[in-house]
């Protein structure tokens, strides 16, 4: 429902107003009937809240009172004058201009002439003969774009001579206190009459210079501060000065801001007899005041209810406290609302959502916690029974404040049926479960660290002895990741029975080396055993074979070692190939036997002026590895004599 100026709007008898989805729609707006403050009240079975207030105003601009002409203003030359506009009744921001004699000749503002946008009046600091004529005030409404003109005001010169010089007289000055909102644009006006024409200047009395955002306009008659902030507050002074003297006007700009929330309350669901504490905090300038509403009505401090600024406390809640609450923060620049629902609960205990497990298994020697978590408002008092006997506290048995029963270092004597009985003023409920004590699970055969050759298969054992009442499951992890027995069935498989989790690994590859962990999970505990598997294979191919130096019969080679694949490299052989040989052949070297730590050798017995390629093969305890990539083709030097028709010696 909606209210206007505190009175409910009767939508049933009002053909111009109706609601759509909670929104109020007003047709054919009427300034007299529809102006005011609107507020929506929303309600349901849980309570009522008020919306923020909305103010509806109508911009308008009435005509000036009908008159043929205004009284003439008679002044002496050199004298200052003020021509009053006297704007008609209006609402909305106005702007002012003056016509001199006839449209479209408007008065141009300068250091001698000023039109106040606050009062609409025209100020002439020092009248000159050219100023004589008729002046008409033009008033514009910035919202409606309407415009009205006053009757002309004649300005005439007196014939008793010019006026002498005199000191400035400030006719336009800002109020003693100017409130300004954060982020707004503030304009201060200051203008003086005088002969000679006064000059206007501005300063802050604190001596702080103006920032660049401060602008002077209309020959310094207007000071404009854009994007006003708190640091712009203070006392501002306007000084009007000519050769005959000076005068000043001062005023303070104060900072103001509408309230905005720093902290609000949240919905609450509390048990009967519990205590409520809500606090809301708002910032604003001036500091906001607080009030509280319940279901749209003002809430006062009395009895169980205490209100202190933005804090509301209610002791020993009862069902009548249920409803919608609002914290209201207000200063003279605005009002804000924060809403929350309070539900006061009153119900007997119920274990429908948190019953005890029908069967709870625990390992002998472990600690057991039996939770008693009924839903109840107010909170229930709990009592435990084992069979028909009340459970008594002792050095092993503890009853926690939340109703949980803890038994330390359980034995088979602790097995049995346990019942938690919960009671509050509205009723009693109970839940029962059986505690079963099992013997600890033991790992009887663990996997051991192993070394294995590529291509072989092994079984990593993982066998246990466990209580027959337990459900047991086995899983394996490799280097921290669970093994996917379906995705990698070519290499991994489970073997063994219900008390065995043995892992078979077939056709082991180098990438199968690492840490294997067998994880055993039962109803009451989790165990694990691990082993490191080292996989050995022939060495990887050497790398970067290079011919460092070559003669007519020798070549000096160097290379880099490949991976040893789990077994140290014990030696290298060098092979060569020419256009005249079939495939790669071993060649003689110096040293004759190249050990695993040597990365250079000299090939001997080569033929002169023949193009050779070389490669290196490593070996370890597992066998010969893959050969290296071939070196670049290199030709031996020419020999002065050729003593052999063979290309090089071949070693089988």
Automatic annotation (TrEMBL):
Keyword Mitochondrion appears in the UniProt entry: no
Gene3D superfamilies reported for this sequence: Immunoglobulins
GO biological process, one term: brain development
All copies of domain Fibronectin type-III, residue ranges: 538-639
GO cellular component, one term: plasma membrane
One example GO MF annotation: cell-cell adhesion mediator activity
Alphabetized UniProt keyword annotations: Cell adhesion, Cell membrane, Disulfide bond, Glycoprotein, GPI-anchor, Immunoglobulin domain, Lipoprotein, Membrane, Repeat, Signal
Pfam families: fn3, I-set, Ig_3
Subcellular compartments: Cell membrane
Chief localisation class: membrane
SMART domains: FN3, IG, IGc2
Domain Ig-like: start-end pairs: 1-57, 62-150, 168-254, 259-343, 349-438, 440-528
Membrane protein topology class: Lipid-anchor; GPI-anchor
InterPro entries with a match to the protein in the record: FN3_dom, FN3_sf, Ig-like_dom, Ig-like_dom_sf, Ig-like_fold, Ig_I-set, Ig_sub, Ig_sub2
Subunit and interaction comment: Interacts with PTPRG.
Protein family (similarity comment): Belongs to the immunoglobulin superfamily. Contactin family.
Protein name: Contactin 3b
Organism: Oncorhynchus mykiss (Rainbow trout)
């Amino acid at each position: 429902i909606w209210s206007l100026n505190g009175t409910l709007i009767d939508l049933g008898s009002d053909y111009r107003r109706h609601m759509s989805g909670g929104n109020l729609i007003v047709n054919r707006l009427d300034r007299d009937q529809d102006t005011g403050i609107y507020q929506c009240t929303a309600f349901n079975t849980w309570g009522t809240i008020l919306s923020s207030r909305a103010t509806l105003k109508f911009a308008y601009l009435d005509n000036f009172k009908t008159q043929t002409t205004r009284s003439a203003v008679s002044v002496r030359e050199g004298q200052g004058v003020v021509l009053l506009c006297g704007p008609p009744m209006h609402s909305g921001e106005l702007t002012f201009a003056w016509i001199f004699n006839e449209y479209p000749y408007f008065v141009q503002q300068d250091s001698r002439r000023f039109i106040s946008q606050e009062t609409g009046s025209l100020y002439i600091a020092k009248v000159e003969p050219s100023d004589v004529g008729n002046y008409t005030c033009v008033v514009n409404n910035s919202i409606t774009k309407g415009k009205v003109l006053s009757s002309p005001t004649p300005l005439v010169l007196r014939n008793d001579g010019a006026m002498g010089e005199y000191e400035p007289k400030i006719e336009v000055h800002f109020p003693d206190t100017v409130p300004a909102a954060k982020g707004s644009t503030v304009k201060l006006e200051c203008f003086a009459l005088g002969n000679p024409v006064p000059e206007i200047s501005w300063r802050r009395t604190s001596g702080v210079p103006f920032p660049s955002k401060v602008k002077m306009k209309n020959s310094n008659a207007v000071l404009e501060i854009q994007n006003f902030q708190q640091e712009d507050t203070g006392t501002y002074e306007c000084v009007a000065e000519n050769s005959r003297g000076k005068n000043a006007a001062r005023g303070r700009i104060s900072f103001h801001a509408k309230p905005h929330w720093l902290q609000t309350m949240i919905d609450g669901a509390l048990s009967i007899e519990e205590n409520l504490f809500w606090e809301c905090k708002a910032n604003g300038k001036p500091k906001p005041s607080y009030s509280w509403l319940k279901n749209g009505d003002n809430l006062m401090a009395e009895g169980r209810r205490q209100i202190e600024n933005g804090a509301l406390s209610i002791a020993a809640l009862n069902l009548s406290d249920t409803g919608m609450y609002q914290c209201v923060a207000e200063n003279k620049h605005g009002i804000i609302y924060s809403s929350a629902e309070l539900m006061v609960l009153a119900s007997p205990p119920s274990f429908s959502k948190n019953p005890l497990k029908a069967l709870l298994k625990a390992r002998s020697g472990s600690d057991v916690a039996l939770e008693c978590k009924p839903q109840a408002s107010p909170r229930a008092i709990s009592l435990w029974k084992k069979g028909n006997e009340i459970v008594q506290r002792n050095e092993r048995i503890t009853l926690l404040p939340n109703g949980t029963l803890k038994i330390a270092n359980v034995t088979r004597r602790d097995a049995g049926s346990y019942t938690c009985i919960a009671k509050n003023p509205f009723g009693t409920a109970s839940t029962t479960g059986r505690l079963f004590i099992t013997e600890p699970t033991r790992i009887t055969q663990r996997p051991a660290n192993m070394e294995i050759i590529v291509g072989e298969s092994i079984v990593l054992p993982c066998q246990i002895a466990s209580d027959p009442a337990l459900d047991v499951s086995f899983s394996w992890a490799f280097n921290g990741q669970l093994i996917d027995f379906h995705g990698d069935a070519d290499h991994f498989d489970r073997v063994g029975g219900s008390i065995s989790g043995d892992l078979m690994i077939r056709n082991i590859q180098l990438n199968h080396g690492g840490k294997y962990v067998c994880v055993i999970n039962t109803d009451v505990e989790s165990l694990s055993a691990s082993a490191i598997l080292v996989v050995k294979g022939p060495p990887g191919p050497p790398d970067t074979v290079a011919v460092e130096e070559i003669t007519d019969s020798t070549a000096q080679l160097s290379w880099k070692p490949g991976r040893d694949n789990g077994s140290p490299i014990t030696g290298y052989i060098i092979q060569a190939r020419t256009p005249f040989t079939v495939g790669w052949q071993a060649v003689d070297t110096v040293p004759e036997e190249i050990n695993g730590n040597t990365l250079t050798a000299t090939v001997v017995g080569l033929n002169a002026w023949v193009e050779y390629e070389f490669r290196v093969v490593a070996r370890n305890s597992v066998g010969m590895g893959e050969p290296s990539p071939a070196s670049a083709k290199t030709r031996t030097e020419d020999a002065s004599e050729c003593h052999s028709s063979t290309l090089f010696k071949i070693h089988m």
